[in-house]
Amino acid sequence: MTRDELDIIMGQLLDESLEFELAEFCRVCQANEDFVAALVAEGVIEPRGDERTHWRFTGRSVRRTQVAVRLHHDLDVNLPGVALALDLLEEIERLQR
Amino acid sequence: MDFKDYYATLGVERGAKLDEIKRAYRKLARKYHPDVSKEPDAEARFKEVGEAYEVLKDPEKRRAYDQLGADWQAGQEFRPPPGSGPGQYYYSSGGPDVGAEQFGGFSDFFETLFGRGGAAGARSRGAQDFRYQPGPMRGEDQHARIQISLEDAFNGASRTLEVRSPSTGKRNIRVAIPRGVTAGQRIRLSGQGAPGQHGGAAGDLFLEVTFEPHPIFEAEGRNVLLTLPVAPWEAALGETVGVPTLGGKVELKIPAGSQSGRRLRLKGRGLPGSPPGDQIVKLRIDTPPADTSFARTLYEEMRSKMPFNPRRDIGG
């Protein structure tokens, strides 16, 4: 199959307009609900909706959560440490732009 | 297959105690963690360090590794002793053949010594308690960067990518680049990551978008910046001039009395979106060269007839 014959795959743009329910968000980020709830409690991610059953997460929260999972697991960083590291990483990224 | 010197990888002596090994690992893991490190080979180094720690932290694995002898040098061609096979040196309690690639892909050297099951007890993300999924195992997510032009971001486009996986080899996929995507945004391609194990679903592929440098435009989020050269008389007297935008040329009225650095906004002429970005036009006054007698005469006439001190406000 030549390059031109390949079907075009439509991806999801992970931006502010995209919303995930908790279960789907956990699947996308490969984190379980309790871990996500702990990130919310720590202020690492902020879902729309007050109650856990009504939480909606934007596409932008996916990256923060995936990095949080990796830092927590790979480096044994606790959640306040994860929150601090994420903020500092984003600040560095902003300054480098 | 090359011999791997796990002690050298962690920078510790062969007789190092467990706490020294752990300290060395932690330090290197922080240094090469792909989410933190700016080192170009961070991911590969992080995996090497993780593999070395996986062996040296475990007394049973370390003993088996040490039995190979101290004569091997890193990078030396390694052949397992006759009669040995994968897993000869260590049998994991974690069950046979739990896909090592799920755990970030340990080396052939590791698998020759400990078998693929040797990774089953690894402190790997896939096996971590808060993400553990029993039964079929979902494939690992893959992450990549894709560089596109600003024109592609403005118009939308498609790109053909080569995706590599240890189990399925190379394959091409064609991906839509959505109109209005901005630098740093990510596109999720569901099921296009590494294949699953034991009937598990494939992982996802995440593409982070970056922009190729553009000869005249620069993007800031959805806004597009352009530095527009203007003649001194256009800035002083005002003028309507043609300005390039990603959507084509438009007319822009330069107000009389403009100075260099003044910013003018072309609303909605940036990258598309809700709301669309603007094009910000920054004026730069270019002076014509005084390279003819006529031009020199004109400049001299201005000097004598138009008293002007541009440094007045700074005491010059």
Offer a quick outline of the entry:
In chain A, 54% of the residues lie in helices and 10% in strands.
Structure explained in plain terms:
The complex is a heterodimer of chains A (97) and B (316). By secondary structure, chain A is mainly α. Chain A has a single domain (14-96), classed as Multidrug-efflux Transporter Regulator, Chain: A, Domain 2. Chain A is 54% helix and 10% strand. Chain A contains 4 helices and 4 strands. Chain A has helices at 22-29, 33-42, 59-74, 79-96, and strands spanning 8-9, 12-13, 19-21, 56-58. Chain A has a two-stranded antiparallel ribbon. In chain A, helix 3 (59-74) crosses helix 4 (79-96). Chain A is globular, with a radius of gyration of 16 Å. The model of chain A has no long low-confidence stretch (mean pLDDT 91). Chain B has 3 domains: 6-131, DnaJ domain (Helix Hairpins), CATH 1.10.287.110; 142-211, Urease metallochaperone UreE, N-terminal domain (HSP40/DNAj peptide-binding domain); 217-305, Urease metallochaperone UreE, N-terminal domain (HSP40/DNAj peptide-binding domain), CATH 2.60.260. In chain B, 26% of the residues are buried. In chain B, strand 2 (157-165) and strand 3 (169-177) form a beta hairpin. Chain B has helices spanning 6-10, 18-32, 42-56, 59-67, 108-114, 150-155, 232-237, 293-305, and strands at residues 142-148, 157-165, 169-177, 186-189, 205-211, 217-220, 223-230, 239-245, 248-254, 263-266, 279-285. The longest helix of chain B has 15 residues, at 18-32. In chain B, helix 2 runs antiparallel to helix 3. Chain B has 8 helices and 11 strands. In chain B, strands 6-7-11-10 form a 4-stranded mixed beta sheet. A 3-stranded mixed beta sheet of chain B has the order 1-5-4. A two-stranded antiparallel sheet of chain B has the order 2-3. Chain B has 316 residues and is an alpha+beta fold. At the A-B interface, strand 1, strand 2, helix 3 and helix 4 of A face helix 2, strand 3 and strand 4 of B. Strand 1 (8-9) of chain A pairs parallel with strand 3 of chain B, so a sheet runs across the interface.
